[in-house]
Amino acid sequence: MSRKSKAKPPSPFRCFNSSPEVIRLVVMMYVRFPLSLRNVDDLLFERGIDLCHETVRRWWNRFGPLFAADIRRQRVSRMKGFRQWRWHLDEVYVKINGEMHYLWRAVDQEGEILESFVTKRRDKEAALSFMRKALKRHGSPEAITTDGLASYKAAMKVLGNTDKQEIGRWANNRVENSHLPFRRRERAMLRFRQMKSLQKFASVHAGLHNHFNQERHLIDRQTYKLRRSAALVEWQSLMG
């Protein structure tokens, strides 16, 4: 009996006239750097690539989540089960049409952004939904560092993780610093208009930030160049 060959999944780029290399470049420039849609349009035009800024919007909306999901799958498989895994949790306010929302973020001890979750409140139910999502996707860490927000303690009591919680005055600087790149992007985008678009962009931005963040202030120039080149090569192979 002859085995049936497994059908190769169709390319996500098949309905687009531009090459995958150009699409990856456009998505990387817009999501990774604090640039507006028209900034990306102008920079590409100087390099001989003529695109409308609405094409930039369409491509990042279409391919950004696909690239981020591919990066996330690779990183989750490498980190899951790591014994000394420590998480840092924090929330930051984000205004949408003048209304306050909260972006919850989970970061590990290496600065990897594990989860981004948007809610309208920061009560026990919001913290519980955020933590359940993070634990389901990444598994259970050895310790969880938070600030003094009572919602964390209440949520951990429900989950049975009270013994893992750690609270310190400066112990949560790792996750607080992780908000800075997102804040720069928020200013360049002139804030968000919808809660759904905030959730989508925060998740995509976190994936690309993890991929290209080499912490160059901690390593020498030569090591940084090697890691940066490796990250770019891996980026070019996404969804290949």
List the helices and strands and how they pair.
Layout: H1 20-32, H2 37-46, H3 53-79, E1 86-96, E2 99-108, E3 113-119, H4 124-138, E4 143-146, H5 150-159, E5 165-167, H6 173-188, H7 195-212, H8 221-236
Report on the architecture of this protein.
The model has no long low-confidence stretch (mean pLDDT 88). By secondary structure, the protein is of the alpha/beta class. The chain is globular, with a radius of gyration of 20 Å. It folds into two domains: 57 residues; 126 residues, Ribonuclease H-like superfamily/Ribonuclease H (Nucleotidyltransferase, domain 5). Helix 1 crosses helix 3 and helix 4 crosses helix 5. 27% of the residues are buried. A five-stranded mixed beta sheet has the order 3-2-1-4-5, with helices on both faces. It contains eight helices and five strands. 52% of the residues lie in helices and 15% in strands.
Main sheet record: 5 strands, mixed
The CATH class designation of the largest domain is: Alpha Beta
Q: N-to-C terminal Cα separation, in Å?
A: 32 Å
Provide mean pLDDT, rounded: 88
How many domains? The number is: 2
Structural class: alpha/beta
Low-confidence stretches: none
Please give a handful of descriptors for the protein shown.
single chain, 240 residues, alpha/beta, Nucleotidyltransferase, domain 5, 2 domains, five-stranded mixed beta sheet, 8 helices, 52% helix
